[in-house]
Design goal:
The structure is a single chain. By secondary structure, the chain is mainly beta. The protein is 9% helix and 47% strand. The chain has a 22-stranded antiparallel β-barrel. Strands 1-2-5-6-3-4 form a 6-stranded mixed sheet. A 5-stranded antiparallel sheet has the order 15-14-13-21-20, with no helix packed on it. β13 and β14 form a beta hairpin. The longest helix has 14 residues. The radius of gyration is 30 Å and the shape is elongated.
């Protein structure tokens, strides 16, 4: 191998042997590593010209993949999200009940600033979007041959381009692995659900007398998911937040929340039999109301319904493969080819299938004759009816994804200048099924049941319009188990859509030193990049599909949607072409001067042109000041961007009905949420400041500490304006219907009508450059290791303090502060302890967050006390009987800490059991056990 590859091999060994083992700031790593593992430099992600981590002006945390798995052996990604700098990302348990496609994907989010504002790299190459909404599913990353993860916690758009607003996460593979590995584990909760198992194999070997190298891995992961929230106390209690947020009616938590306008039994809402339910199939009895909740249509207890079928944890199954080939063409030219592929399946229950406030015939054949007679005697021909169906499967999002990335390139040395040429090609397909979507045409035909001449119960259209609905099976809703399986299958449809994304990226860079100053060589890097991203989708159910009302008497008009939930439009292929050119310079100013062992200035600038949204410039200016061997200071100021992605610009229309409170009419009901794109979006621009200090005292060997401050301001941030947002509804109301926000709310009658007949027809949503975001905070880290009782003890503490995340969603909206509101605690702490003695190793991880308030809008009134601080303990015991062999037991949430009750206001208040019930980010599964083994040869 070349000298460069030998150095890289030594580097990776040194990084994986950092003093504490689990985590290390690049700035502190060299001094805390054991002497035998010292390396000359640490190649880090935050810069193209700075190779020594000690000289970085931007904070970079280097995370050893091997040691991450010591504390969270299930997968590297779950372990990574335990770091306090991450908040608000997505895992299989972060959004149970959500209907969005690929809900179980692992998506990273630095500081809760946004999943699309964290740039993800793989071996320093941009990872393309793996979903239509522009997110990156990091399950794609091969963990077995992962060497480390570099986390840049500062703006880096000038170095790496768009999306690096909150930072960069770079997954780096071990390119020189020789031998083989086997990893396997099995896990289950204390309730014996959520069972998972994983097995992975990897191998590598040199070729061609050391000039070449080949390696590869395969990993299979399966988690069965948990589809019963009621198995946990917080889920069984069905907590929601109710009230009006005023002093007279403050928001407050309600237990055993029920929807008073619907029931699992079937509820008649109008006519002479109003407020009665079919407690037994076909037999009416009075509806038992629960206690008042402070909100219209919501009660505590009683016969009302709730969404009991939403997931606790999504099912996830992945096959992941990786291969890499390296070859030294000459002593100074190196070629490589790298391929990553993944197939993933996940499934997540959304809400219980229901019919809410539908019109039924008073002479419906499934009604007992006595009830038909009472209706007729009262002169009533129809009545309003609601039912949540326990017999029918829930609305469900089942997604299958296929991803692959090919990364090919050449790099080398040309007269002391390091150059690199690369090409990345990727394809992603994502197919999402909703196998239990209600076809409104068939449903309304099946619900209009009559008797034919022979006395058989049939669909009315089978008599009046023979052949219009062939095979129509009448649907009986009058009772807890009244629906027949055949009738349910008749009205349900499997709607699906398939989204395809792709990227072709060509990049080139060259870096070296053109000259030196009195303080050392000036480093310069030039880079250029061209990429093309594509997106298209096909669907078998369009949001524009309307029910054909021919032959139907009830619940159908020209605006009735064909499908009850979650359909996406077909979109022909659209593309975005990006051209970029960048320069970075690192200039040493002082060396071995009084109070300045070294002082360097670092600067970068990038010009980017988007064919979809114009051109934009980004830049960064920073310094690194090493006072002496004990103290270093650093700081940066940068201008960073995130360009609108293809989904925001040209994405398909999405329709997903959901429960909502209509402020205008005061009715709690269901309405379609229609989300569209906006081709007029422009890149959002952020300004970032960072400043920090690193301290490694001579008086305390093997100790290091760092403290970094940051401030990020985003001007024209892209946000989705949602008509169902309570603030938008209130702004529309206060304007008397004249506000432009009223255009996001569709009604059948003029605004002046506040009756139930003017209940909202649809809420519209679309992205706009309307939001302002400001956040600031401090990250701190301390490390220490020492000998203890014949073994080695290593301690590490990481703290993130983020007192504010202020947003103004749109002009006229109040200032919201999301810090101190789930999932963003003001203070987040991760403490790690490792004790190694002989063949045994004990790892303890303690995670703590500060308490929460309930809402980012601090003007709202709550009668609830703050949510208490939360701590979680994880324990791993490892035994190594022979070199390269380990068996381990891991217990997550050792003390089975349960989350405190939580509920958000707005749409979640009207859908009890679907969302919420706990602070997002807290553990909701409970104590979990994992046993496994690792083999290295």
């Amino acid at each position: 191998m070349t000298k460069g590859r030998q150095l890289a091999s030594g580097l990776l060994a040194g990084v994986s042997a950092l003093a504490f083992g689990s985590l290390a700031h690049a700035e502190a790593s060299a001094d805390t590593a054991p002497a035998a593992e010292q390396v000359e430099e640490v190649v880090v992600t935050g810069s193209r010209v700075i190779q020594n981590g000690n000289a970085m002006p931007t904070p970079v945390t280097v995370v050893s993949a091997e040691q991450l798995l010591k504390n969270t052996p299930t997968n590297v990604i779950d372990a990574l999200t335990n770091l306090p700098v991450f908040a608000g990302g997505r895992t299989t348990t972060s959004q149970p009940g959500n209907s969005s496609q690929n809900n179980a994907a692992h998506v990273l989010n630095l500081r809760n600033i946004g999943t699309t504002r964290t740039l993800v790299l793989f071996d320093s190459r941009r990872v393309p979007p793996t979903s239509p909404v522009g997110e990156v599913n990091v399950d794609l990353v091969p963990s077995l041959l992962l060497s480390r993860v570099d986390v840049v916690t500062g703006g880096a758009s000038a170095v790496y381009g768009s999306d690096a607003v909150s930072g960069v996460v770079n997954f780096v593979t071990d390119r020189n692995f020789n031998g083989y590995k086997v990893d396997a584990h099995y896990g289950t909760s204390k309730l014996n659900d959520g069972q998972e198992w994983k097995i992975g194999v990897a191998g590598g070997m040199p070729l061609f007398d050391g000039r070449g190298h080949i390696e590869g891995s395969y990993e299979f992961y399966n988690n069965d998911g948990i589809f019963n929230k009621l198995s946990r106390d917080w889920g069984a209690n069905v907590w929601t937040m109710q009230g009006a947020g005023t002093a007279a009616n403050p928001y407050h938590l309600v237990r055993n929340t029920r929807i008073s306008q619907s029931s699992f039994l079937g509820l008649i809402r109008t006519g002479p039999l109003a407020d009665q339910v079919f407690r037994l199939n076909g037999q009416l009895s009075p509806f038992q109301h629960g206690a008042a909740s402070g909100a219209t249509g919501i009660e505590s207890g009683g016969d009302g319904g709730y969404f009991y079928q939403a997931s606790l944890q999504a099912l996830l199954r992945t096959h992941q493969g990786f291969g890499r080939f390296d070859y030294d063409l000459t002593d100074k030219i190196h070629a490589y080819a790298e391929v990553v592929g993944m197939e993933s399946k996940n499934r997540n229950n959304h809400q219980t299938n229901e019919f809410r406030n539908i019109t039924m015939s008073a002479q419906n054949a499934f009604l007992a004759p006595e009830y038909q007679q009472r209706m007729a005697a009262a002169g009533v021909s129809t009545f309003t009816f609601s039912k949540m169906m326990m017999q029918a499967p829930p609305l469900q999002s089942a997604t299958k994804t296929k991803d692959y990335i090919g990364n090919f390139g050449l790099n080398g040395d040309w007269g002391g200048w390091k150059w690199d040429l690369s090409y990345v090609h990727s394809k992603n397909s994502q197919t999402t099924h909703n196998p239990a979507n209600i076809d409104n045409q068939k449903a309304q035909a099946a619900l209009d049941a009559v008797r034919d001449a022979s006395g058989n119960i049939v669909c009315r259209v089978s008599i009046t319009n023979p052949g219009l609905y062939p095979g129509c099976i009448p649907l009986n809703l009058f009772g807890p188990t009244s629906e027949s399986l055949d009738a349910i299958n008749y009205v349900l449809a499997d709607t699906m859509f398939k989204a395809r994304t792709g990227m072709d990226d060509v990049g080139a860079s060259i870096a070296g030193s053109p000259f030196s100053t009195w303080a050392g060589p000036v480093q310069v890097a030039l880079s250029g990049e061209y990429r093309k991203l594509t997106y298209s989708s096909t669907s078998n159910a369009q949001p524009t599909d309307r029910a054909n009302c021919t032959g139907l008497r009830f619940n159908c008009n020209a605006n009735t949607a064909r499908w009850i939930s979650n359909v996406v439009a077909t979109t022909s292929e659209v593309s975005q072409k990006v051209k970029e050119a960048a320069v970075e310079v690192d200039v040493p100013i002082l060396k071995d001067a009084p109070f300045a062992q070294s002082f360097n200035i670092n600067g970068a600038a990038r010009y980017t042109d988007y064919n979809t949204s114009g051109s934009v410039g980004t830049w960064k200016l920073g310094f690194a000041w090493e006072v002496n061997d004990q103290v270093r200071f650093r700081g940066t100021r940068s201008r960073d961007i995130r360009a609108p992605n293809l989904n925001e610009l040209f994405g398909a229309v999405n329709v997903n009905p959901a429960g909502v409170t209509d402020v205008h009419t005061g009715i709690v009901g269901q309405a379609p949420f229609i989300t569209s794109s906006n081709p007029d979006l422009v890149p959002e621009v952020a300004t970032t400041w960072t400043a920090g200090v690193v301290y490694r005292p001579e008086w305390l060997p093997n100790f290091s500490a760092s403290l970094d401050w940051y401030k990020i301001t985003i001007g024209n941030a892209i946000t989705t304006l949602q008509g169902q947002n309570v603030t938008i509804q209130n702004l529309c109301e206060s304007s008397g219907g004249s506000s432009p926000f009223c255009n996001l709310i569709v009604r059948p009658l003029p605004f002046s009508d506040h009756s139930a007949a003017n209940f909202v027809t649809a809420f519209l949503s679309r992205p706009e450059n309307a939001q302002k975001v400001k956040t600031n905070g401090i990250d701190a880290e301390a490390n220490y290791q020492t000998g203890l009782f014949g073994g080695n003890l290593a301690l590490r503490g990481l703290v993130s303090y983020q007192p504010h995340l202020k947003t103004v969603q749109f002009p006229g909206a109040p200032v919201l502060d999301a810090a101190d509101v789930p999932p963003l605690a003001k203070t987040r702490v991760t403490l790690l302890a490792n004790y190694r003695y002989d063949k045994w190793s004990l790892d303890i991880q303690e995670r703590w967050r500060s308490g929460y308030t309930f809402n980012a809008d601090r003007t709202l009134v709550y009668s609830e006390p703050r949510i208490r601080p939360y701590a979680l303990t994880n324990l791993t015991v490892t035994y190594a009987p022979t070199k390269g062999t380990e068996v381990y037991l891991n217990v997550t949430n050792l003390f089975d800490k349960q989350p405190d009750p939580f509920g958000s206001v707005g749409g979640s208040s009207s859908v009890p059991g679907l969302f919420g019930g706990y602070p997002q980010g807290d553990d909701i599964v409970g104590r979990y056990f994992v046993v496994g083994f690792r083999l290295r040869r």
